[in-house]
Amino acid sequence: MTYRKVISIVDLKKMKEDKKPITMVTAYDYPSALCCEEAGVDIVFVGDTVGMVVLGYDSTIPVTLDEILHHTKAVTRGAKNSFVLADMPFLTYHGSIDVTLQNAGRLMQEGGAKAVKMEGGTEICHSVKACVQAGIPVMGHIGLTPQAVNQIGGFKIQGRSLEQAQKLIDDAKALEQAGAFAIVLEMVPEELAQLISEQVTIPTIGIGAGRGCDGQVLVYHDLLQYASPLKAKFLKTYANIGDTIVEAISTFKNEVQNRQFPAEDNVFHMNEEVIERLTVSDEHVDDEWKE
Ligand code: KIV
Description:
The chain folds into two domains: 9-244, TIM Barrel; 247-290, no CATH class. It contains twelve helices and eight strands. The protein has helices at 9-17, 30-39, 50-53, 65-78, 97-109, 125-133, 149-152, 162-178, 190-199, 220-223, 241-257, 272-277, and strands at residues 22-26, 43-46, 83-87, 115-117, 138-143, 182-186, 204-207, 215-218. β4 (115-117), α6 and β5 form a beta-alpha-beta unit. α5 crosses α6 (125-133) and α8 runs parallel beside α9 (190-199). The mean pLDDT is 95. Bound molecules: 3-methyl-2-oxobutanoic acid. 3-methyl-2-oxobutanoic acid binds at residues 26, 47-49, 87, 184, 207, 217, 219.
């Protein structure tokens, strides 16, 4: 395992100033966290996409705080030096400030996350501000916000009209003023994402937002093509792990069926003398076990 410096929000801000692109990858369990840590990604993110790519839900809406917490604990055990960010699930930051603080606090205190992420613009800034004032770093998320999929009417590009684009610029500035340390821009036109990135001093992390953002995020299962149900033009796959896994499991099945596995290399033997002295009659078996 390669040694890495522990990344902080100060380092992330410096990366923007130095024009050094930030990498963020989702992880949901111990092995994916280990792999992200070893690859040296800057932010390891326990996204609520866990609901879709790991738990098989149709959207991120059913994901609960306890589910995110469970996965965050596994990720922080694997990614010890990375900046682990945990997602605030649907409706966990829309009630009273006390409940929001309690929920975000659990992800940090029990889960070990270094920060939380919330979807929404001006309408959630009071929650962002309260968390930041309490010492909980918050990443914002605007553009396509999957928790609002039923309001938006599907997974669609956001910010193409003048009105929508203006709202996204205002949202980004409001989030910065509320104290967010970074903002995810999801599925917005490249030109708008670039403009927003120039208008705020905090890093923007894009997904389907083009080349002008300060960093990029991909979902682990999309990046690796690991049985992901998500398909979109802006995703890039860097491996085909899903096919490799199916191939390996099929080979195992064939080898078991053809009695090729286990082979001599995979078995344990015992002393022949002991075998010879073993009795194979029913003599020592208690009556209760005999039919
Ligand atoms: O939950 C998630 O994985 C996300 C990313 C797509 C940014 O919000």
